[in-house]
Specification:
Elements (H helix, E strand, L loop, with lengths): L6 H24 L5 H13 L3 E4 L5 E8 L12 E11 L2 E14 L12 H6 L8 H8 L2 E4 L5 E6 L3 H13 L3 E6 L7 E4 L16 E4 H8 L7 E3 H6 L14 E2 H9 L5 E2 L5 H8 L6 E11 L6
Amino acid sequence: MPVAIPSDAIAHAVFAFADANDVTARRMCRVPTLHETSLDQTFIEQLSRHSGPVQVGSGWVVTIETHNLGSGRHFGTWEIADIGVLVAVRHEGRLRLSKAAMLQSKRLYPVELALDEAEAHDYVRGIFRLWKSDEEAIEASRPRVFTFTGESEYKQLLAGDEQVLRIREFEQSRGAPVHYLLYNPAEMGWVQHFPIHLTGPEPASNTAGCRVVDAASIRTHLTALRAGQSATFDGIQSGLPPPYDRRPARGGWRVEAFVERVLRCQDGYVMEDGGGRIASALFGQRTGPISAAIAITFDAPGGAGE
């Protein structure tokens, strides 16, 4: 690596991702019925609050930028990742290193909630899908309870699912790893009542939260399940290969820890061509197989690369 990123610059980026983790996981506790896309938007929006160039004590400037690209998955193009993270290290304006990490997000469902993500007909209806029929309104207004337990499922993370196979094919053809971003509530064992009480309890800490596992390890776990069976929280906690079988990576790296690993060149994909081939395939078109992008740029002060 031509220019080593100083610890204070890395710490600034890690803090931003830890904040996005905390806000997203707590929102999941408050509204357990949120669609996965809403959790993506919460995560991206919270990161955007840390946007703008920030100079840290070492003199380096860290810039975090976010961009929602949209997705063509429901119109015939399968997403390879929901969120792409692009890292650029520059010295006096010249690119010294570029890296990418691709995150396919999957949310944990409370035990009482069936699979209820937006499908193609919802996109066709557009905003009008927010208007409920009388029958839907009556169902939505009745008192309900939602709980997250070890038996809660990542209902869209299925053994033998086509998307799992597409991700494997992408990794094999591109030579670039994909990771899963697992959305969990801040605390397991969490119980939420609908309607929500304004003075209801809040999570004391974020012990579960947003976790990251490489796709190859997820596939290894899924091979032990029957076709069409969903991964569970307990299954991910106990059924992944090393290093995910022990702390601090048990059940996945915390997303901020994963980002730190990317910045320290322990994870992610180094783009030897300056990002042209992979970045163009993933980020360069409106209908590309990705939904949102996060760019982290590190600008070294003069003399840092000498």
